[in-house]
Specification:
Length: 141
């Protein structure tokens, strides 16, 4: 069944997650919100959390944001993770959500870059992969 009430939040250091979150938001017709703007999270059926990986971890501001989420207001969460290795997920975000009892429906690893490693990624095709992932979840597939 199609999910109607969707929210997209992101944390970013080098703007990859911002671009991914904004393109997802455009496709889903919602607003992307930077966690550093302290968005108020009202009732949400599906929350997309978009973030990169730095030294194996998520940004502290994203962890704080997830920590402060009101579990009663969030149905489910989906993770979109941008990293150079394309192997490391948002482990700590996942752990906090699990502790709160918020179900994680899926996580997409999106190709990022670090200095000259995978330079230019995420490219448009990488971002499109994230958009397609989000659309599938919106359609409840
Ligand atoms: C300081 C720094 C540390 C990073 N550490 C990792 C890492 O441990 N593993 C990894 O796969 N990618 C790592 N990366 C790559 C980023 O996760 C990748 O570029 C991601 O797209 C960044 O997202 P953002 O632009 O939204 O901040 C690192 C990047 C930076 C700048």
């Amino acid at each position: 069944m199609r999910v109607e009430n969707i929210r997209v939040v992101y944390a970013t250091k080098t703007k990859h997650s911002k671009k991914i979150a904004e393109d997802i938001s455009l496709a889903l017709n919602v607003q992307a919100q930077n966690v550093t703007d302290n968005p108020r999270v009202e009732e949400t059926e599906l929350l997309f959390i978009v973030g990169g990986i730095y030294g194996g971890d998520s940004l502290p501001e994203l962890l704080n944001f997830v920590h402060d989420l009101d579990a009663k207001k969030i149905g489910k969460a989906a993770l979109v993770t941008s990293c150079a290795s394309k192997k490391q997920g948002q482990t700590k975000v996942r752990k906090i959500l699990e502790e709160k009892g918020i179900e994680i429906v899926d996580e997409l690893l999106c190709q990022g870059s670090f200095l000259f490693f995978k330079w230019g990624r995420p490219n448009q095709a990488d971002v499109q992969e994230a958009v397609d992932f989000a659309r599938r979840l919106q359609e409840g597939l």
